[in-house]
Amino acid sequence: MPTDDEFRQAEILLRLWDGTKQRAVERRSIEWKVAFGVWAAELGAIALVLNNAAKLRDLQSHWCAFAAVGFIIVVLHSCYVFCFVREHNASDSKIAKAYERSILAIVGPAGPTVAAGPGSSLVPPFFEVSIALALAGLATLVVYSLPGA
Questions:
Q1: How many structural domains does the chain have?
Q2: Fewest beta carbons within 10 Å, which of 28, 83, 84, 120?
Q3: Is 40 within the bounds of a domain?
Q4: What is the pTM of this model?
Q5: Domain containing 113: what range?
Q6: What is the DSSP string of 53-73?
């Protein structure tokens, strides 16, 4: 049977564990806001080109530049998702598992376990990036298929 000091230590560890979970949830909400922002910008560019096709005939000759900008957006978004978000989620998950092991060592097998701990991703990062890539490709295709002057 754990002592009062051990229970207090387990409570502190549980609060620390919850903090890692909160950071992951906050990061996930920011991650999706960034993703929706990128997607909205790409869709906005497509809508702008389609609504002003007659005025933008000269844009067709610059479709490679349009594709390059789309590619750069996808690369930056990929770096954000894979180098920042994924790394921080993995770090939080590792820390949370260490807290969980420490809690279980104090209170025994009846301690808390979590099926999806901090940092576990509900949607694979490849999904976010593939949507951005598809929209960038669609935007380039729209510009390329503009009627020539």
A1: 1
A2: 83
A3: yes
A4: 0.65
A5: 4-144
A6: TTTTGGGGGGHHHHHHHHHHH
